[in-house]
Amino acid sequence: MNPPKKKLVVVGNGMAGARVVEEVLKRAPGRFDITMFGAEPYGNYNRILLSNVLNGSQSATEIFMNPLSWYRENGIKLHAGVRALKIDRERKVVTGTPLKKEALAYAVDAAAATDGVAVGESYDHVIIATGSRPFVPPMEGFGGTGTFLFRTIDDCDQIAAYAKNCKTAAVIGGGLLGLEAARGLMTHGVKVTILEAAPQLMVAQLDSESGQMLRATIEAMGIAVKCETITTKIVREDGRITRLDFKDGTSLATDMVVVSAGIRPITEIATASGLTVSKGIVCDDQMRTSDRDIFAVGECVEHRGRLYGLVDPIWDQAKTLADVITGFNPQAGYLGSKLGTKLKVMGVELASMGETKPSLPDDEVVVYREPSRGVYKKLIVRDNKLVGAILLGETDTAGVLMQMFMGNTAVSARRADLLFGSSTGAPVLSVFDLPDHAQICNCNGVSKGAIKEAIQLGKCHSVSKVAGCTKAGLGCGSCKGLVAQLIEAYAGEVTDDPSEHYYVPGVALEKSQLVAEIRRRGLKSVSAVFRELAGGKECPASKVGLASLLKTLWAGDYDDERDARFINDRVHANIQKDGTYSVVPRIYGGVTSAAELRRIADVAVKYNVPLVKFTGGQRIDLLGVKKDDLPKMWKDLGIPSGHAYTKAFRTCKSCVGTDFCRYGVGDSIKLAQEIERRFQGIESPHKMKLATAGCPRNCSEAYVKDIGAVAIEGGMWEIYIGGAAGGSVRKGDLLITVKTHDEVLKYTGRFMQYYREHGKYLERTYHFVERLGIETLKKILVEDSEGIAARLDADMQKAVDAYVDPWKEAELPAYPGQFSAPELAHALATAENNG
Amino acid sequence: MSTTPTVINLGSIEKIAAGHSRCYLVGGTEVAVFRQRDGRLFATQNRCPHKQGPLSEGVSGGGKVICPLHSHKFELATGTGSESGECVKVYAVRELNGEILLSV
Fold it and tell me: What's the whole-model pTM score?
């Protein structure tokens, strides 16, 4: 036996009324017998698109949201064209009467306009969603031929029909809807004038300067605008409108008038039924009126003293109401909304949120104006939070700003980023605006939808949790910022996961703390670190990072446990997808010789190397080599390792420099060779690729290297750090300009050592330099503000002195089986089972 | 009833340094044997189910191995993988008198 269905009566069949019914059906289909009263004789439609109907870009049928069949399919009884007049709270009955056909749906004198037999519907719950009606400022002569409101489909039809016989039209009201009405009228070939009582257009969304700018743009389209103009009288001759008279004594000739001067809540039924009404129908946080069984939603509602006329807040109200009334979440509460919109007004992009003007003495205002393009951007920041923003003419960053505004999150220190996107090239467009199928992590192919699901359903509120759940950010890591933005968008705030700051996952210390502990306790091996700092728990994912760090800290004194190395560093070659390896001999500065080339060619032939390829770093790569051939090839080559497999100094490219080039002003070849001989094999948090250029033409791409030295006129070298030309592209920052090769070597080494000590594991220099800032690095490395320059230089010297060509292990493997192929197990099975 | 496993002697434990691993060819099948620093021995199929990376070349420790190609992780005792739907076959292996005995 099912309990009898409860009776739900919805008064109002506009967007809010229909939406709340949809929300109710989603949560509890079949729970209620639903009856709806709608004063308009249609199903409900998207009122936001009315201006498209007026300007002809959409037909009326296209903007219907729920056609009449929707009501049938969901078993909803619809009294279309019937106006509900009173809720009899004693008898629990809603009564209404049909409207006369020609009557305005939102007319105030409803009783007079009704016709026919009254309708009564008994209820358990009522939802009032009567919406609002246009506000008509007091003036003489409004109503009758040639005067229109702009609120319903019928209004649009009538305006369009009348405009055919008009040359001029006036729109009273310079808000969003007034402008839309003006745009619609223009398409009917009339000359339009907008009349606004305030000193500017769109006073709710714009400040006076942007209002002025918008006005200029609109006037350029051929629409006249008069502000600070109050209409007192509509003057007719022979029954047709001829002109409007204004309060200041002036007048304007016009053939028709459309009023779009704001809205007022429709509250008569609430008043008639004895509910509390102030500006609107007063509701609590659960959308209840002063009667427990009667709720309200939408533009007719006054919640915490505020009225809302935008869809987003009303959708939120509808959800809360549905949660409560169905018992889906009896504790649900609507706490009010922050207002922000992104829209196109007469073809002009506009985003506006929160306050338009500063209101407190300490409010920070950031403004950018570009009148020639009609672009205006303004932020109001209070306590480092965004409390208001206007973007006119260009709204690239609107999505991000909207998130910050709605989420009340701290804004970036560089305010310019908020207006123009980040200087680092990080995406300007908010991930918020991307569709769900958009790929966020390009390494692992993770879509926005998958990340959203992890955040919302999987409750992953930190970047590392999302990564653990979806793999997003586990490739090159460049999408981590986007992942953080998504967390902010869908969870409100990124939870700071302390483990994200650990140098390696298995030791709960940040790099500086870890370095301090290692030094203090004199830990010289990876297993010692696990023993002393990780409770004896060995973490394979931490071994490689610790090995790199320990080698940096102890140089020659490091206790090198080979099992802590990644395979590449165990066999001094780069593992390939098929399990073979690549061999890249060191070619200092990209300069080789016929004899060396011949040896390389001989080795390639002898070991059947399937691919011989020039690398991007001016060397030769022998690919597809079997592990057990590695030591034999190295011996035959007689050239040191090029370290093309490890997180270390890789190579220093050069251009042809001064010997032959017509433009070279510095000996880039010699310098590159000096650099490469000095720093070969120096380990670092990530790889370091260097270059020298003999002139600023940059043939060797030194500006976009981890470290680049560029010769300039006057016998000088500029040293750039933190360049990149991989997945991220960044020109390096100028650290210092020096005179001699020795100075280049000194500052190069000093920066490397500092990066080795302070870079996070797998953090490239471009990220490192950006994180610390070039000014900070200049102070430390050039001005020696911390007094560590000499120590850095000395430690780098120790690392250089500790260098041994790893390919020497060809003669004597460092551990058993280092270069062994899979070993054939002897087939002699031992007979016994339990030895 | 299960058949009695064949036990194969893979030779001296000293061929694998502590913390390292090594690949053996057992009747045409590649088996990775892991000698952990804590003394435990493990054996799994050598090829990662993801892209056939050689697990014997991965970094291991704490009862886990990380594939050298794309860092998929596997529990050495059970073969359970870090990626859903991925696991590797495990073999019983033990040390006897300094020799490695593998059951297949």
Answer: 0.59
